[in-house]
Specification:
Strand content: 15-25%
CATH class: Alpha Beta
Structural class: alpha/beta
Number of strands: 6
CATH superfamily: Mannitol-specific EII, Chain A
Shape: globular
Largest sheet: 6 strands, mixed
């Protein structure tokens, strides 16, 4: 599975403004709703439910919120870069500015895990994250995510 299989350049948001983890998740849910056709509230609730089990902020200023939905037919990815980092209760205690939201169909065990692993590798690579922070356009970010 490649990143291009789960997202297009339209799934990327640059310079998102959010004052909290909750507001950030709402912004991401709104963007995801536009593309998936699932209601913003449904997406937000699923992602928040997963976050309540433990933060998906895994350090280095990155987070990988994710959830499974009954009403989608494939895995979707959404990337956001914040203009100002927010507290995401990450494992290292540092605020987050790079977020990759992953939404999968309920029955997509292998595809969901494959996508999580792929995105995790990208977000754990410090050099790639630094390039994502410096990129000026959504197209540049998309190219970095697909490299």
């Amino acid at each position: 599975m490649k990143i291009s299989d789960i997202m297009t350049v339209n799934n990327i948001s640059v310079a998102i403004k959010a004052n909290s983890k909750r507001q950030l998740l709402q912004e991401l849910a709104e963007k995801a709703a536009e593309i998936t056709g699932i209601t913003e509230r449904t997406i937000f609730d699923i992602v928040l439910e997963r976050e309540n089990l433990g933060s998906t902020g895994f350090g280095g200023g990155t987070a990988l919120p994710h959830g499974r939905l009954a009403d989608i037919d494939k895995v979707y990815g959404f990337f956001a870069r914040l203009s100002t980092p927010v507290d995401f209760e990450a494992i290292d205690g540092k605020p987050v500015d790079l977020i990759f939201l992953l939404l999968s169909p309920e029955g997509s065990g292998a595809d969901h895990l494959t996508a999580l692993a792929q995105v995790s590798r990208i977000l754990k690579d410090e050099a790639t994250c630094e390039k994502l922070r410096q990129a000026e356009t959504r197209e540049q970010i998309y190219a970095l995510l697909n490299n």
